[in-house]
């Protein structure tokens, strides 16, 4: 068996859906199991419309549901020639739209929109999309069955980003999916959605269909999990920044997780978790170029001759620094800093402290910088008044540039080559961090310099 996950873009319109059918028939001998997302953009519309419902913008809510309905009904009309099949799908989709309308009405009446309601509303995207994919496959002569993941994947009640109970879910998924495959059918499982013990709808986090794909692959003992996307695989850098960027034939689970964290938006970081445990390879494949082998993600890095594999950057960040002689040798300062930031729900993306302890700096999203500075000035108000701490300063916009690769572990000179290249490009480095995993080196530059730095470092490792 082979689990294939198709994202929102791949299932977002009629021509792309035809591609999906063609890909599935091409690999039919592999006994595919399909996991799919909502049609591109639908999840966003569902959630935005929920906010409109909360504000009782009834006309806009009505129009949004109408337009979602038209978009899905058009697919049914265009694909399904068989009258009975088309009527059956339209009836089911209509029932979903009625239910969705009721949910929006409920939100408007109660003026209440909890994470739990948002999950219930968001789930319609995957339900509508996967039901239609199953019908389209049937119409194309491929026996298929729709599977609502809420019946086979159980989570806790952390709505919006629920944690999966693997022990409960794996056997349920296998029991639902495997007999269908044995009969020669292609199961189509909804990505992203699940439910609690009490049957309340949850979601596993935005862009979580990749993760569902990996969960289904692990549960069914699939030979591989293929993540279909619109690029040939994981690239050495963003090709818009670095025209000479190339596709990596293989990366390790750890590298892929590290890369997705650092802005290479190829795969959801959680996707690696079930795959690692069951040792199932993940492959990134291009729907526009299905014969390309893509990038294989396994336990082994196959580092080859290159120590560094990707160079990526994240923009729109701020460096917050705390400086002062009063911090030297005083225990608990870092603890206070990070507790204060956690209280303000500021996400810290990188930390750097020189061993002189005179300065601690860390990176936060720019949108959080004001809140971060505010809570730190509160927390350290007394210390600032006593001149133990000079001040809390912020510098923005800045970018993190990250170099990722397992080949850096134990290799010498990688940092030297990286920073030498940055210096030659005449880019100033504001801060540096290397995790002791040695899997990545990250440094901070002015946002205006980020692309130049990425190109320079990429050239240093990849120039022929
Ligand atoms: N439809 C969901 C989202 O937009 C899940 C996914 O696309 O992976 O976040
Ligand atoms: Mg996606």
Overview of this structure, please?
The longest helix has 28 residues, at 83-110. This protein folds into two domains: 2-229, Carbamate kinase; 310-462, VC0802-like, CATH 3.30.2130. The strands form three sheets. The chain has an eight-stranded mixed β-sheet, sandwiched between helices. It starts with a strand and ends with a helix. Helix content is 42%, strand content 20%. The chain is globular, with a radius of gyration of 25 Å. It contains 14 helices and 16 strands. It has helices spanning 14-26, 42-54, 58-79, 83-110, 115-139, 166-182, 209-220, 253-261, 272-278, 333-343, 369-379, 381-385, 414-424, 450-462, and strands at residues 2-6, 32-36, 144-147, 186-190, 193-195, 201-203, 224-229, 250-252, 282-286, 295-298, 310-323, 350-353, 359-365, 391-404, 431-434, 440-446. By secondary structure, it is α/β, with parallel strands linked by helices. Strand 12 (350-353) and strand 13 form a beta hairpin. Bound molecules: aspartic acid and magnesium ion (MG). Aspartic acid (ASP) binds next to loops.
Care to give the gist of this entry?
The chain is of the alpha/beta class. It contains 14 helices and 16 strands.
Low-confidence stretches: none
Question: In CATH, what is the class of the largest domain?
Answer: Alpha Beta
Could you tell me the strand content as a percent range? 15-25%
* Rg for CA atoms: 25 Å
H/E series, N to C?
EHEHHHHEHEEEHEEHHEEEHEEHHEHEEH
Overall pLDDT level? 93
Q: How would you name the oligomeric state of the polypeptide chains in this document?
A: single chain
C-alpha geometry: globular
> What is the count of DSSP helices, taking H or I runs of 4+ residues?
14
- The helix fraction, in percent, is 40-55%
Could you please say which CATH topology of the largest domain applies here? Carbamate kinase
Q: Supply the CATH superfamily name of the largest domain.
A: Acetylglutamate kinase-like
């Amino acid at each position: 068996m082979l689990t294939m996950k198709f994202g929102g873009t791949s299932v977002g319109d009629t021509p792309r859906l035809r591609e999906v059918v063609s890909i599935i028939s091409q690999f039919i001998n592999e006994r595919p199991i399909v996991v799919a997302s909502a049609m591109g953009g639908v999840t966003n519309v569902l959630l935005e419309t929920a906010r409109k419902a909360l504000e009782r913008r009834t006309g806009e809510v009505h129009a949004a549901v109408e337009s979602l309905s038209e978009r899905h009904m058009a697919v049914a009309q265009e694909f399904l020639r068989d009258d009975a099949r088309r009527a059956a799908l339209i009836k089911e989709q209509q029932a979903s739209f009625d239910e969705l309308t009721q949910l929006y009405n409920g939100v408007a009446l109660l003026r209440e929109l909890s994470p739990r309601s948002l999950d219930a509303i968001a789930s319609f995207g995957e339900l509508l999309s996967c039901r239609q994919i199953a019908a389209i496959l049937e119409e194309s002569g491929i026996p298929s069955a729709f599977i609502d993941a809420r019946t086979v994947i159980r989570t806790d009640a952390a709505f919006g980003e629920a944690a999966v109970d693997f022990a409960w879910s794996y056997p349920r998924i296998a029991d639902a999916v495997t007999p269908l495959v044995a009969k020669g059918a292609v199961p189509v499982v909804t990505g992203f959605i699940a439910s609690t013990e009490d049957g309340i709808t949850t979601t596993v986090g935005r862009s979580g269909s990749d993760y569902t794909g990996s969960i289904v692959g692990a549960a069914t003992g699939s030979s591989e999990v293929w993540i279909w996307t619109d690029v040939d695989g994981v690239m050495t850098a963003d090709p818009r920044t670095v025209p000479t960027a190339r596709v990596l034939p293989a990366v390790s689970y750890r590298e892929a997780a590290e890369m997705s964290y650092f802005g290479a938006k190829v795969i959801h970081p959680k996707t690696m978790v079930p795959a690692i445990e069951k040792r199932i390879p993940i492959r990134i494949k291009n729907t526009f170029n299905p014969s390309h082998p893509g990038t294989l993600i396994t336990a082994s890095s196959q580092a080859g001759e290159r120590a560094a594999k990707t160079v990526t950057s994240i923009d729109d960040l701020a460096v917050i620094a705390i400086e002062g002689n009063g911090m030297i040798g005083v225990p608990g300062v870092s603890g206070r800093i990070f507790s204060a930031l956690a209280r303000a729900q500021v996400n810290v993306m990188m930390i750097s402290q020189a061993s002189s302890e005179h300065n601690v700096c860390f990176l936060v999203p720019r949108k959080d910088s004001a809140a971060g500075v505010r809570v730190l000035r509160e927390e350290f108000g007394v210390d600032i008044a006593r001149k133990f701490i000079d001040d809390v300063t912020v510098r923005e916009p800045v970018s993190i540039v990250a170099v990722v690769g397992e080949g850096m572990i134990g290799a010498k000179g990688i940092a030297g080559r990286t920073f030498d290249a940055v210096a030659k490009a005449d880019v100033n480095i504001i801060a540096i961090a290397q995790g002791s995993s040695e899997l990545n080196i990250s440094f901070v530059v002015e946002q205006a310099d980020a692309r130049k730095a990425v190109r320079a470092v990429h050239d240093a490792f990849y120039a022929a």
